[in-house]
Amino acid sequence: MPDEYIKYLQSLNDKQREAACSDISTPLLIVAGPGSGKTSTMVGRVLFLLNEGISPSNILAMTFTTAAASEMRDRVGLIAGKTAAKELTISTFHSFSLQLCRSHAEKIERTSEFLIYGHGQQRRAIIEAVRLLENEKSRQNQVACKPGEDSNSMRSPEYFKDKSKKWQKFVTQAKASAKTPAELRKLGDEIEAAILEHYNNILRACNALDYHDLISCSVKLLTTFPEVLKECQDSWRAIIIDEFQDTSAMQYNLLRILASHNCVTIVGDDDQSIFSFNGADISGFDSFRDDFQNYKEIRLTRNYRSTRCIVEAASSLIQHNMKRCQLKNVLTENSNGSKIMIKECHNEDAQCAFVIDKILENASDGLDTECSYGSIAILYRRQVSGKVFQTAFRERKIPFNIHGVAFYRKKVVRAIIGMLRTTLPGCDDGPYRRVFKALLPFEKEEKKRVIDHIDKISTIRKCSFISAAHDIFTAKISGTFKRSQLTQGRKVLLTLEMISKLVHREQSISAVITSVANMVPQKYLLEQRAVVDFDGGKLLNEDNDLRSVLRYLLDDVSDFLSTQFVAIKEEKNVDENEKGCSSMLKAFIDYVLEREKENFHIRRHDNKNSVTLTTIHQSKGLEWDIVFIVKANETEIPLLHEFNGTVKENATSIEEERRLLYVAMTRARKKLFMLYVMVDSNWQLLQPSRFLKEIPHHLREVQAELSVKDPQTKHQKILDETAQFPVDLPREVHPSETDLAADELVNVQINDLATELTDPVEALDGNSFLRRFSVEER
Ligand code: ATP
Ligand code: MG
After folding, report:
1. Residues in contact with 672: Cβ distance below 8 Å, sequence separation at least 6, in sequence order
2. Complex ipTM tops 0.95
3. Is 304 in the pocket of ligand 1 (CB under 6 A)?
4. How far is the CA of 11 from the centre of ligand 2 (A)?
5. What is the pLDDT of residue 485?
6. Cis omega (within 30 of 0) on the bond before 181?
7. CA distances (Å), 482 to each of 264, 468, 486, in order?
8. Percent over 70 (pLDDT), the chain
9. Mean of the pLDDT values across residues 592-604?
10. What's the pTM value of the predicted model, to 2 decimals?
11. Strands, DSSP E only, in 569-640?
12. First to last CA, the chain
């Protein structure tokens, strides 16, 4: 065994080493608490497998986020060398399934260019499905009705939209539990079956799959095509899964089929399961025990990450959960460390001021002068709570990076990606619509009118957005347009054609992206300044222009080329220099979609010396010396939904919220601060989180602002004092910004892929239009 491998394996403790070096044909289950070296053991396992003669290209490691995948590749690379690390397949479930479905698209009745439908497109397909069902119903009723009485065409679009909300929920649930129309019919659910059937047909007609389909179609490929199963089983001789507690039943199914050779290692902690809203299901642990009967289970009990105080406080908290399937004893031999500081603050500004004081105090403490900022994180339940810190850090010139910043959600970035997507075969309406929004140099209202008109024409003529736009701007159909509007519209059409040519001529994606980015008008960038400002973080710190966006995009291109494209190129025999860069671009856009879906964009290079701002959901698996959990208030964590004025809570959701706080607390190595505020931006009194009381007295140090006990007097006093507090209250938060972090992962990530298809059945090939678009017509 190479010296480096031996050295690494020796640095593990006995249990960890036993796990890493277990016999390769024994299914392995590692269940352990936070900071006990699960991920470190996984790295050891990879080294052991390599040493056993398994080629890196035959190892499949699944992690939950692309950031975790990069982290893993880096760690293996440090020991086993960059070449081996590059050859490993380290993937998320979705990107793995996406590749599999693309390679065998014809078997699932798609072409390899199939589209991925996010939330918005799914909604449109469902509206269409409802419309089709209503049509059928009205045809059946026609005999009984007077002519035109129950005509579906009389119904307003709102009618279908209203209905679609309910049906979208149903379709999502049906897909998550892998229900088929035939099964629904058997249960007597005729209408449900019909909707699902129409929906599936529409997606097939549009050459599209939604996120659930990606996993279920992969399962279908493996179960109905023995040659695909064989190909996968030959390719993946060893499978390793980190953060197993977050896999859904369907994802587990995929794993079970893939891993029939038994060389499978799963690693997880049920107490850290925080994605149940996304279908995560901890019963996967039991399924694994049932399905892989000769499995070996290893428990790691020693926490290497945190001080004893932090470990004990977090353990006390999680013990309040009743539903825990595998009780774990987490101990540490680390020093006691300081008590957890629970700090009461007047409002969010006061909270921010306190955090900044502490950061500066610790940074100048020389705690770790080289990367003192880099070892600090601020964690919050909802993305919006990070905003006040971004503004203050900018003012105080404290470098920061935002985990989970939705870089690919920025309208500017989406416009650039949209411009690139229009060059891919099978591009639907969304990217075209986005490009028109970005490139038409009109005021907002005028732009909206023009785009609405194109939409209207495309609905009436049942054609795609781009062919409607083409006919309008080349005056093939009459309309009430100003001459300037027609000229500008034609310019956009020309730009699209230029981009298409560029992609076919240019050899490098970087060059194409640079040219395309430069086509985005300054006016549009200024319009979007607010968006960039909201979650741009570092973007604004440097310069608020296209250069920063472009630099980040090009960074991702090189990341993509060095990690992903090597594998894709070999697999598909793609030649970078053949026919410009369109095949590379297609692979890059898939990579971007994956990142966009995760709503996760981590600037690895920026993290070294900057404070991390992140939601708790995105902090999993990571660690920092000093952690501030901010806004630990009731209604924040636990975050409870309000229905018709009353807050609904149930034991299950409270337990998930408690696990979330558990994950947050266990990110800290040395110091943990938990802060709550007394008054919100509407001067309403807020309560500290109920979970704070679950931390034993002897482990916490509470710094309260007021010692008044009587609630009435306290409220008045807080308001008086807050009024005197020298800093402004945070501005009122727009409702859309107060979305749950969790919901953001479901809705925003999926919504953001939305390309707002006008008529899903009529998705036309945009490129053929561009080819048709002759010089004379211009
Ligand atoms: P989480 O549940 O949060 O994902 P984990 O169980 O995956 O945690 P790791 O991230 O692998 O834990 O390890 C936590 C920390 O402990 C890391 O800093 C790692 O380097 C350190 N560590 C792990 N094992 C050992 C060991 N045997 N000796 C010293 N340090 C260790
Ligand atoms: Mg881990």
Report:
1. 309, 310, 313, 340, 341, 626, 627, 629, 665
2. yes
3. yes
4. 17
5. 83
6. no
7. 65, 17, 7
8. 76
9. 56
10. 0.73
11. 611-615, 624-629
12. 68
